[in-house]
Amino acid sequence: MVIIIISDNPKLSGRPFFIAETMVRKGHEAHYLIWDSPYRINRKAFVKHLFTSLKTKEYKLSSVTVHKIGRLPYYWPYVNGLLFKYQVKKLYKKVGADLIYAATYTNETEVPKKLPFIYDLADDYSAPGDLYGSLIYKLAFKLLDVKGTMKRQCQNSLAVTAISDILVNYAKQYNNVVIKLPSAIEKETVKKILQNPSIYSSNDYSFIYISIFGQWSRPIETMQAVLELRKEFPEIDLILIGPGVEVENIKMFIKNNDAEEFIHYLGPIYNRTTVFTYIKQSSIGLSASIKDKFRDAANSVKVLEYSVMGKKVVSTNLAEVESLHFPNIFTFSDTKKGSGLKNTMREALLYKTTNNEFKDISDYVLREYNWDKLTDDLLDLIKKVNKQ
């Protein structure tokens, strides 16, 4: 089978690329479509985007054929939308594609209605425009018609895959064929680290927090809790990994509180072996994002990554986290009296685990949440819709 995969963002990483790589391993031909996107509006980014946006390119990465398509610099909603559709139609015909698997959500990147495609709701794409950002940011979501594009692509697609129960229920309003397809972990990478006895946690009071540190992630509150808990647990340690708009605030907090010895911001790390190694070397994983309609509709992939390494987890009471019912997860609520982030971190610290206590959970996650299994689920869906 020849499939075109279009991500919800123009990056060669994450869920869409793992699916593309897995498809190739299973004997299929995957074409991954990307484009330039002006993520940050500053002079340097503007100049670079101005000269690279219209350029096209084709190359191989991990046996996946990558196609960079052209677009007008910055945002030209309807013009770029027409240009996008023209190039997708052209690519579909050129490679002899059987299907498109797309997660796009703006009128600049909408899949042509007449082409067969499955829509991937890998996020509640409209929620950030409702909850976060400046007036310009919110206006951009309006001009790019995010809500309308999500609805139309659910309606126009052969089927929808959704990352959470909340998004499954949303998609069922517009399409009769909807399945839940959460994100997963890299099975072989995880197995190698789990089986390496030289990688272990030497500190029962060590936390790790991996996230995109946006407005919802509350890293400052997390670090403040560590400062306060250190009076009771002097060996406490925290590692933070990830990019985001809160990074400068994280660095400033560490510096202002002389916390360099026990709070370590390592920046974004894209090597997955390194990420899972840091998780195994820690004792407790943190997923402290605020519970709102954006985060509640997300998949609990970080919680799964902590759990597959057999770690205790402290998490907000997000719907997808609570549905797991894993005994290694300590959930907290911002509205329930006596709960809260700091108190739940203390609860996790006081809970003493034995060696391999959560091995059954690790085995379960490894078996049920790996890219081979979830890609097989997608391929089964493709076979189903192709017979209709």
Could you explain how this protein is built, in words?
The chain is an alpha/beta fold. It contains 17 helices and 14 strands. It has helices spanning 14-25, 43-52, 77-95, 127-131, 135-143, 146-156, 165-171, 187-194, 219-229, 247-256, 272-280, 293-296, 301-308, 319-322, 341-350, 359-368, 371-387, and strands at 2-6, 29-34, 57-61, 64-68, 99-102, 117-121, 159-162, 178-180, 206-210, 237-241, 263-265, 284-287, 312-316, 329-332. The strands form 2 sheets. It has an 8-stranded mixed beta sheet with strand order 3-4-2-1-5-6-7-8, with helices on both faces. Strands 11-10-9-12-13-14 form a 6-stranded parallel beta sheet, with helices on both faces. Helix 8 (187-194) packs across helix 11 (272-280) and helix 9 (219-229) packs across helix 15. The radius of gyration is 22 Å and the shape is globular. The chain starts with a strand and ends with a helix.
